[in-house]
Amino acid sequence: MAGLLAATFPLLPAPPVRAAGTAGAAIGRQSFVAEAVRRAAPAVVTIDTERTVAVQGSGGGLLADPFFRQFFGLPQLRQPSQRTERGQGSGFIYQNSGLVLTNAHVVERSDRVTVGMQNGQRIAGRVVGIDSLTDLAVVRLETGGPWPVATLGNSDALQVGDWAIAVGNPFGLDQTVTLGIVSSLNRNVSKLGITDKRLDLIQTDAAINPGNSGGPLLNAAGEVVGINTLVRSGPGAGLGFAIPINRARSIASQLVSTGRVSHPYIGVALDQAGGGGVRVMGVQPGGPAAGAGLRVGDVIVAAGGKTVANPAQVVGAVEASGVGRPLNLSLRREGALLSVEVVPQDMRRSR
Fold it and tell me: Is 105 a catalytic residue?
């Protein structure tokens, strides 16, 4: 990954802003980036984590062997039995009671969470819930309030080419801002070689670096439209990705109310089908799809009454259906058009 680069923003006229409630009011013409960041920055936080891990015997050769040292009357070496690992990420307050959204990978397996505010204040945080499948987590500030909040926007209204402003704390450098555009939408995480997540991401060329994880991706009005989650590194890469805020809003609601998230699944491996539709490449034995009679080679052409052209749309239909609610699939099988009903189950309970 390239080294740190300082960036300054030219004095640009404010871009046209689509109606977005009070947060979409006219923005000063001197610098729309500065104004957007000013609105969100008080709610952007640093998240410091600590966890204690056991330390295995470190070897050290014959001189470290306790029997050798006892035989020759040497004092015994005291090996540490544990060590503290520290990490850092970003997040933002989205409810004034002190609820913070961040990435799951920022806080999972942490023993201690400390949240740093823009004014230098540091508050103990408690992890409310973690959903590793979507890489989202909610942390609650343990004291104080009411807290400044970031205004949540509508990620479904994003268009390729819209401004994208990433705010966070990369490399421990507080309140760092980078500017870019929305490069693509609905980028399925499996296309990035990540198979243990269920996400369709916002792609941006706004720089996202280590420590940015969990921070907000803003639109030109200063509204949060995404949560920065990963960067595609390597020569010529320079691609960042964010979780759409509409998806995050739904996950956060479940985490706050129940501490966990229900993810429906039907138990199939899918791939794009030549000529349209989505081909079934594998069927999990004993899973919902197997019970409904799906077979390898079937081509799903519609789910829930809507035409599907890629695996992400099938997954979206399953998510929208929910656990325990029948979902109708239209299939092509050996030239015939069939209709089957599959009932998604909870992914976690099936394991």
Answer: yes
Give pairs for 72-80: CB < 8 Å, separation 24+. 79/55, 80/55
Q: Which residue has the higher pLDDT, 316 or 66?
A: 316
Catalytic-residue membership of 263: no
CB-CB contact of 171 with 139 (8 Å): no
| End-to-end Cα spacing for the chain | 37
Which of 48, 131, 135, 200 is flagged as catalytic? 135
User: Is 111 a catalytic site residue?
Assistant: no
Single-letter amino acid, residue 250: S
Instruction: Express each pLDDT in 28-65 by its tens digit.
Output: 456 899 999 999 999 999 999 998 877 665 555 656 66
DSSP secondary structure code for residue 307 in this structure = E
The residue from 48, 90, 105, 183 that is catalytic is 105
What gap in Å lies between CA 20 and CA 32, rounded to an integer?
15
DSSP characters over 188-242: EGGGGT--S---EEEEE-S---TT-TTPEEE-TTS-EEEEEEEEE-STT--EEEE
Return the biggest CA–CA distance within the chain. 84
Please compute the mean of the pLDDT values over residues 97-105 and round it to a whole number. 95
Catalytic residue among 213, 263, 298, 321: 213
Q: What does the block give as tokens for 328?
A: 């109708």
Q: Rounded to two decimals, what is the model's pTM?
A: 0.75
